[in-house]
Amino acid sequence: MTTNVDPEAAPAAAPLRLTAAQALVRLLEAEGVPFVAGVVGGKLAPLLHALSRSPTIRYVGTRHEATGPMMAAASFAGSGRVAVALAEMGPGSLNLAAGAGVAYNNNLAALFVTTNQHRAAAYPHGGMFMDLDTRAVLAPLTKWNAVVHDARRLPELVRRAFREALGGRPGPVHLDIPQDVLAEVCDYAADEFDIAPSRYRAQGGPRPDAGAVHAAAALLRAARRPLVVAGGGVVHAGADALVRALAERLRAPVVPTQMALGVVASDSAHWIGHGGIIAGDAVRQAFDEVDVIVAIGCRFSSWLWDERGALARRRHRVVNVNIDPGALGAPVLHEVAMQADARHALADLLAALDDDAAPTATDADWLPRLKAVRARYEARIAESAQDSSEDGGEVMHPAALALAIGRALPADAIAVYDGGHTSFWSNDLTPVHGVRTRFHDPGMCQLGFGLPYAMALQLAHPGRPVVAVTGDGAFGFTLQELDSARRHGLPVVTIVHNNESWGVIRAGQRKSLDFEFGTSLAGTDHAAIARGFGCHGERVESADEVAQALARALASGLPAVLDCRTRFVPHPAMPAFGAMNRYSYDALAPPASR
Questions:
Q1: Distance between CA 570 and CA 558 in Å, rounded?
Q2: Could you give the count of Cα atoms lying within 13 Å of 54 in the half-sphere of its Cβ?
Q3: Which of 298, 245, 246 is nearest to 274 (CA)?
Q4: b vs e for 213-223, b when ≥16 Cβ sit within 10 Å of the residue's Cβ?
């Protein structure tokens, strides 16, 4: 029997013999991972060795594993790039879990990589020290996770991890890799690491159904008081310009959620406040009077609730656009639903509206009336910021500090709002000019995320000023990362609203049961702590000092802390914030049945 052989055929390339750790790094490089953040550990040695030889992936050594997932969340929020959080087995993985909710609850893609006991003693675990079923621990905090039992499956599982993280609604994913698998050596096909991401995951979202587009256009053409609600899906899809075009076409106000800060600038003709119900009177009035709501990439979290649930009531006609089918129909009923990428949906909707040259039916005074409500609200806040002795003493009013920060921030600055009560003042009084310049953690509301977030944003934007505005309570959770920021050359500035207390908790104790217990944080000098870490630190006593102090902090080239002494004054949105947490089925019952 004769076999025909092409004498000119190229011989098959020799396989690549690599450890699983080396293969993992090659796969991360193919996905454009910008950095890996975490704490070094002995069982991670093969992976750390491979990372040390990567020409493109930066390693950021942190002081606590919870910092890694917060940084990874910020990477996706700030740049759209998936970063990796790393943790040793056992307590390292538990520490990582403590920060994982920032990515999970805010729908931000990230990859968590942990290690574990060798396969002979893991899954099920055999009682060794540091035993942990890490897959089970992180399952509720990830979209998808798996244990890698065989190094030969690593390319398949890493690609699936990225496909799951970025497909549909984004979110974090997790791979637990036992220590012996990381070190395992095996042969991989020569072209295994040359496969482009477009070959194994979708690169664009779906277009909406044409019938739904025309139905939505008909609703909006007839709307007298339309309202646009823009969520994080708008930012992820790069659809902010289309939101602004829709608002102009409808002559409608826009309410960006906490995940969409900057979709409309705070000086826009269409801006009436952002962040949801805490944004003040104009947002609440808009929901009270609107007849058609178009919600894009928004899941109507409790930031858009009151004690009766979502502000979009059953009487409202809602056009809901979301890439996640689970966000359509709950908690808000819709007239028209589009399971689609926000950019495609808005482009098609604008085209449908433009097919009819007739003007929309929007009331001429709808937007101006809401803008006037917003202006009165801002005037009341500005008046409250008057830092006079008549208003409680010489210590700064938080509104005075927030206004001073807003005036002092460079035009290209990126800002993160950390802390509970502190973030309300930042939302109101920090100007915002575009998307991915202002950040909050509305999903998990995890105190202390601000400094890790700022560090990741500084990595993504090395030439821009990055500022974290936080409360003194929140800062205490992660202030050790000042050391990490200094070691890695990340000159982020932390501005602390320091009222020496858990202010909201203290106010609640006094109001509810007329007591005070465990709420004092007096006596800490955060500027001195910063200097102890080798950073720049200053204490700021008045609003007049803020601009020059910030200029000195930025000029230092070091991570910096401005410890700003303030007093606790309840923000005007506190009643609304309380209402959104008092949701009760009883409130929905008909009056006769109560």
A1: 33
A2: 25
A3: 298
A4: bebbbebbbeb
- Grouping H, G, I as helix, E, B as strand and the rest as coil, residue 38 is strand
pLDDT digits (tens, 9 = 90+) for 315-363: 999 999 999 999 999 999 999 999 999 999 999 999 999 987 777 899 9
CA distances from 139 to 28, 92, 96, 259 (A): 22, 16, 13, 24
Q: How far is 371 from 368, CA to CA, in rounded Å?
A: 5
Peptide bond into 124 cis (omega under 30): yes
Helices 546-555 and 398-408: crossing angle in degrees, nearest 10, is 50
* 24 within 8 A of 47, measured Cβ to Cβ: yes
In angstroms, the CA 440 to CA 373 distance is 25
CB neighbours of 409 closer than 8 A, spacing ≥ 6?
415, 430, 431, 465, 467, 550
CA separation, residue 553 to residues 134, 421, 467, 482 (Å) = 41, 24, 10, 14
> What values do phi and psi take at 84, rounded to 5?
-120, 135
Give Cα 267 to chain centroid, integer Å: 23
CA atoms within a 13 Å half-sphere pointing along the CA-CB vector of 95: 20
Q: Which residue has the tokens 């803008």?
A: 371
Residue 437 CA to residue 157 CA, distance in Å, equals 34
Scan for tokens 């056992």, then name that residue: 90
Instruction: List pLDDT tens digits, range 47-76.
Output: 999 999 999 999 999 999 999 999 999 999
Closest listed residue to residue 499, CA positions, set 404, 345, 393: 393
